[in-house]
Structures are given as C-alpha cells and as structure tokens.
C-alpha cells in the first residue's frame, strides 16, 4: 500500500500492519493492549507521544 501523505494516518497504517504481523506469528493476541511511543511529526527529537492501542 502506498505511503499516506498524512503523517498520523501513515503511522497508524504501519502500526496496524505490525500488529497484524505480530498476531499472525503468535507474538500478540487480538485484543491485547500495545503501548506506542511516537513523535508528532517525522524526524529526530519529536518523540513526545505515548498512547495505548488495542491489537
């Protein structure tokens, strides 16, 4: 799938893909919480957001 122009949408798609892969190989179970650390925009020094999402 092509990269989204919207930063947060792109991050969410990548995160979803990673969680789906982890579920597929047995590292995660669907419904488990996942702690995500990310930046509000691309680049070094922008990591300032923590959120909890459900796999």
From TrEMBL:
Keywords: Kinase, Pyruvate, Transferase. This is Pyruvate kinase. Residues 8-53 form the Pyruvate kinase C-terminal domain. The gene is PYK1_4. InterPro entries: Pyrv_Knase_C, Pyrv_Knase_C_sf. The keyword Transferase applies. SUPFAM superfamilies: PK C-terminal domain-like (SSF52935). It holds the Pfam family PK_C. GO terms for molecular function: kinase activity. It comes from the Eukaryota.
């Amino acid at each position: 799938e092509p990269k989204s122009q919207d930063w947060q949408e792109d991050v969410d798609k990548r995160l979803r893909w990673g969680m789906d892969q982890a579920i597929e190989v047995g590292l995660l179970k669907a419904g488990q919480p996942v702690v995500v650390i990310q930046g509000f925009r691309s680049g070094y020094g922008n990591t300032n957001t923590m959120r909890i999402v459900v796999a």
